[in-house]
Amino acid sequence: MSTATQDRAMAPAGKTGAPRSLARQQTAGRWMLLAPGVIWMMLCLVLPMLMMIYVSFWTQTTFSINSTLTLDNWAAFFSTPTYLDSLLTTVELWFVTLALIFVIGYPVAVYIGLFVRDKTVQTSLLVLCVVPFWTSFLIRVLAWRPMLGTDGAVNIILLKLGLIHQPIEALLFTQYSVVIGMVQIYVVFMVGPVAFMVSRIDRSLIEAARDLGAGTARIFFTIILPLSMPGIVVGSIFVSVMVLGEFATPSALSGDKVNLLGNIIVTQVGSLKWAFASVCGVILTVLMAITVVGLLRIVNLRREI
Amino acid sequence: MLEIRKVTKRYGSQTALDHISLSVAEGAYVSLLGPSGSGKSTLLRVLAGFEAPDEGQVKLDGRSLTTVPAHERGIGFVSQGFALFPHLSVFDNVGFGLRYNARKPLRDGVELRRKVLETLEMVGLAPYAQRQIQQLSGGQRQRVALARTLVVRPRLCLLDEPLGALDANLRQRMTVELRRIHAALGITFFHVTGNEMEALAMGDRVVVLDAGHILQVDAPDIVYNKPNSIAVARFLNRYNLFSGRTDSRGGIATAAGTIAAPQSTGPGQVSDFMDFCIRIDKIRVMPEAEAVSASQAALSATYITSEFSGAIITHLFRLADGRVAEVENHLSHRRPAEYVMGQRYSLVWPREDGIVFPVSPGAAEAAIRRAA
Question: Do A205 and B102 touch (CB under 8 A)?
Answer without folding.
Answer: no
